[in-house]
Amino acid sequence: MAEEKVDRVKIFDTTLRDGEQSPGASLNPSEKLEIARQLKKLNVDVIEAGFPISSQGDFEAVREIARQVKGPTIAGLARSRRQDIERCAEAIEPADSGRIHVFIATSDVHVEQKLEKTKQEVLEMAVEAVEIARQFCDDVEFSPEDAARTRPDFLKKIVEAVIDAGASTVNIPDTVGYAVPGEFGNTIRSLREEVPNIDRAVISVHCHNDLGLGVANSLAAVEAGARQVECAVNGIGERAGNAALEEIVMALKTRRDYFNLDVDIETTEIARTSRLVSSLTGISIQRNKAIVGDNAFAHEAGIHQHGVLKERQTYEIMRAEDVGLTDSQLVLGKHSGRHAFRQRLEELGYELDKEGFKRAFKRFKELGDKKKEIYDEDLEVIVEEEVARIPTVYELEYVHILSGNTVYPSATVEVSVKGEKLRNSSSGDGPVDAIYSAIASLLDVEPVLNDYSIRSVTRGMDALGEVTVDLSIDGLSVHGRATSTDVLEASARAYLDALNRARYRQQSGGDREVMDTV
Ligand code: KIV
Ligand code: ZN
To answer: Is the distance from the beta carbon of residue 143 to the nearest atom of ligand 1 less than 6 Å?
Structure first.
């Protein structure tokens, strides 16, 4: 009997572009590079590294990723304008395999109200954009933004025209998460059946999650013939986010009997990628989040535990090991030396330069003094903090807190600012409030604290506590993050981390320009 041909679904990761557009999630170029390296380990097909025209920082991040991350195709986003496309082409130029992703909106409301154009003008702009992009790159993707609310006839017409102009991938976005699965599947099916040249392009989908249907819509599209899915790690992205990469991948893998499709993802890297994205963006993962939430593989109810112990398939459809959730090993201790530290980092897949290694080893030793047992998760935290570090202006020298249920909390902090040590004290509603008001008046800043969260990153009584803060300052929204075995120290460091990021963004021009969308 002839062997059955199995198709493959390409995974296009947009964590660094659409994901990074999540409010407060902005990443600096070295953090983007670190995530891109991890996405390569995950073996995604395409990394959408950014939107090069949107800021100098994004341009540099895309270019650096194109230069350093080999294997996946590196894509950059561009509006249907020559200037955008040329900037994007320049950013992806060092890639072995680069892609220019151009888009323009096609739904009535976008065409008439936002672009103030006619459909014919939009069609001509789309074709011209693809033709310009093809002058720089053989691999061009086109997206009719808000495709799910675009009139079907116009959608077919523009898809046919951009394929004729040279687009080899046509991506159908549900930009506002409006579609429902049966309907969205039918849209893809009718493009396959009715666009005459559709076999010259890969159909891709890009589903937002406003109604919680991003993954369901993507899978319905795959069933109808889409062969690329755009998604983001932990489902981050504009508003309610994008379809979650880990859910798409594990659904296709776990229900291969149903879809009969391959994906080339190294699923054992999922957990690590998820943790890295969460800690660098400051967006935490809900406990019951599918695949990567803390409870995803926990069996609390007695009846479930009993079943799982007898036969794991009773209540488990996936194995925790398959997504990289192995029991973390106790790896190192206070007396472990440089060699053991380096070896374990290499086993975990980290490549650190000399400076990065020096900083990480110093942190490891400091941690060893406070914490008896050091696990892989501790090492991941150290590496993430030390490798992707931005230049810092404010460093915490010390923090002293007076607090309790019978005293009014007060804090004294000493911060070094470019080497000069400054000290201040303040009181507050609680110890964290006291620390933050001491720092704010010391540095003469008035940030608004939008969010503060704390969680334990590792296990045991002496676990590392991670504090994440979200601040608004001078029109910028920034997050800050720090870990320590002392959560008040971590609180102070996280606040200073956010202030350092705000300064860095103001000075490096790394902030996105507010752009018109024509
Ligand atoms: O949601 C959307 O429409 C997009 C496009 C630029 C692909 O992000
Ligand atoms: Zn999007």
So the answer is: yes
Q: Tell me the percentage of the chain whose pLDDT exceeds 70.
A: 92
Contact 36, 16 (CB under 8 A): yes
Average pLDDT, the chain: 90
pLDDT at 2: 47
Q: Between the CA of residue 281 and those of 23, 40, 190, 376, 478, what are the distances in Å?
A: 10, 18, 38, 21, 10
Q: Which CATH superfamily is domain 394-508 in?
A: Alpha-isopropylmalate synthase LeuA, regulatory domain (3.30.160.270)
Q: Tell me the best of 54, 77, 218 to mutate to test the pocket of ligand 1, counting ligand atoms within 8 Å of each CB and taking the most.
A: 77
Cβ(18) – ligand 1 distance below 6 Å: yes
Distances (CA, A) of 101 to 50, 256, 380: 10, 30, 33
Q: For position 309, what pLDDT does the model report?
A: 67
Closest CA to 452 of 514, 495, 408, 423: 495
Ligand number nearest to the C-alpha of 76? 1
Give 476 or 141, the one with higher predicted confidence. Answer: 141
Q: Is the CB of 470 under 6 A from ligand 1?
A: no
- Residues 187 and 438: their CA atoms lie apart, in Å, by 57
pLDDT classification of 61: cutoffs 50, 70, 90: very high
Ligand 1 contacts CB of residue 206 (under 6 A):
yes
For residues 21 and 113, give the distance between their C-alpha atoms in angstroms, rounded to a whole number. 23
Residue range 10-281 forms a domain whose CATH class is alpha beta
Verify whether ligand 1 is closer than 6 Å to residue 173 (CB atom).
yes
- Ligand 1 atom 5: residue of nearest CA: 145
CB 96 within 8 A of CB 73: no
What is the predicted pLDDT for the residue at 1?
Answer: 46
103 lines ligand 1 (CB under 6 A): yes
Using a 6 Å cutoff on CB, does residue 230 contact ligand 1?
no
Half-sphere exposure of 428 (CA within 13 A, CB side): 20
The answer, yes or no, to whether any atom of ligand 1 lies below 6 A from the CB of 175, is: yes
DSSP state of 514: P
User: Cβ distance 30 to 388 under 8 Å?
Assistant: yes
- Residue-wise pLDDT for 132-158, tens only, equals 999 999 999 999 999 999 999 999 999
In this prediction, residue 511 has a pLDDT band, given cuts at 50, 70 and 90, of low
pTM tops 0.85, yes or no: yes
Q: Which atom of ligand 1 has the smallest separation from the CA of 146?
A: 3
pLDDT in tens, 192-248: 999 999 999 999 999 999 999 999 999 999 999 999 999 999 999 999 999 999 999
Q: How many CB atoms lie within 10 A of CB 134?
A: 17
Exposed/middle/buried for 117, CB within 10 Å: 0-12, 13-18, 19+?
middle
Question: How far out from the chain centre does Cα 199 lie?
Answer: 32
Return the best residue to mutate from 46, 143, 149, 229 for the ligand 1 pocket (most ligand atoms within 8 A of CB).
143
